């Protein structure tokens, strides 16, 4: 991690384990479910917004869930959970609520499978939170690009940018049915029509000036997009921050 990038991360909050009941489940698009968890269990949870994430722990139904992080770590060798990292879509400290958006994959995976059957009263175990990306207030404009797995972070970043911030937002989803309302104009590209994130950005006319670029999604897409921004656009590598959220061909979420 470069010194520049390190300065643009919030400090890590104290890591904790929360076992929180599901309050609501909303089908946002055909392939995306939003699960709201909440309760007094989250009274001490502190969120820094943007791309802050937590680790979700999934245990077999016949394994008693841990009550504390120390308990979980103590049984790691005998009862190791399946884990997945998820961005916090929304944190409401007054209501003690967190929203998580789950992409419903066809392939089996612990998080996607859990979200498909989640109902109010179920419990979700989360560990964290992570540090969070802090947009550069001195940048002339902000580039946000990712696929559907990055939508929660993109939406949360847009929420904290000033109203007069210059933004260019690019999102790759399966088709038009997977588009979501966001608080800024978005260039959508659809895989079903042969579109790709890197191609959409390459075809776009982008503003002049110093950029603050946040990119997240599938690994090969991030490699291609970063290469385009550095090699063809000539962006300063210190101002381009790509993050791999998943890898094509890897086990499901």
Automatic annotation (TrEMBL):
<feature type="domain" description="FAD-binding FR-type">
    <location>
        <begin position="15"/>
        <end position="136"/>
    </location>
</feature>
<dbReference type="InterPro" id="IPR017927">
    <property type="entry name" value="FAD-bd_FR_type"/>
</dbReference>
<dbReference type="InterPro" id="IPR007037">
    <property type="entry name" value="SIP_rossman_dom"/>
</dbReference>
<dbReference type="InterPro" id="IPR017938">
    <property type="entry name" value="Riboflavin_synthase-like_b-brl"/>
</dbReference>
<dbReference type="Pfam" id="PF04954">
    <property type="entry name" value="SIP"/>
</dbReference>
<protein>
    <submittedName>
        <fullName>Siderophore-interacting protein</fullName>
    </submittedName>
</protein>
<dbReference type="InterPro" id="IPR039374">
    <property type="entry name" value="SIP_fam"/>
</dbReference>
<dbReference type="InterPro" id="IPR013113">
    <property type="entry name" value="SIP_FAD-bd"/>
</dbReference>
<dbReference type="InterPro" id="IPR039261">
    <property type="entry name" value="FNR_nucleotide-bd"/>
</dbReference>
<dbReference type="Pfam" id="PF08021">
    <property type="entry name" value="FAD_binding_9"/>
</dbReference>
């Amino acid at each position: 991690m470069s010194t520049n990038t390190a300065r643009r991360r919030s400090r890590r909050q104290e890591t904790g384990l929360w076992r929180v009941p599901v309050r609501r489940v909303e089908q946002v698009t055909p392939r995306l479910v939003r699960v709201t968890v909440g309760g007094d269990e989250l009274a001490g949870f502190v969120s820094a917004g943007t791309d802050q994430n937590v680790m979700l722990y999934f245990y077999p139904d016949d394994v008693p869930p841990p009550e504390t992080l120390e308990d979980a770590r103590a049984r790691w060798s005998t009862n190791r959970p399946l884990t997945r990292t998820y961005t916090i879509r929304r944190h409401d400290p007054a209501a003690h609520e967190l929203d998580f958006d789950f992409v419903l994959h066809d392939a089996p995976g612990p998080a996607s499978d859990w979200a498909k059957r989640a109902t109010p009263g179920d419990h979700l175990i989360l560990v964290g939170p992570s540090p969070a990306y802090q947009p550069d207030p001195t940048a002339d404009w902000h580039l946000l690009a990712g696929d559907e797995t990055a939508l929660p972070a993109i939406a949360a970043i847009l929420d904290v940018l000033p109203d007069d911030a210059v933004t260019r937002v690019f999102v790759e989803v399966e088709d038009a049915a997977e588009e979501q309302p966001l608080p800024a104009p978005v260039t959508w590209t659809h895989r079903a029509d042969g579109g790709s994130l890197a191609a959409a950005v390459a075809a776009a006319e982008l503003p002049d000036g110093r950029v603050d670029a946040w990119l997240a999604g599938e690994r090969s897409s991030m490699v291609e997009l970063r290469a385009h921004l550095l090699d063809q656009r000539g962006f300063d590598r210190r101002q381009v921050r790509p993050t791999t959220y998943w890898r094509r061909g890897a086990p499901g979420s």
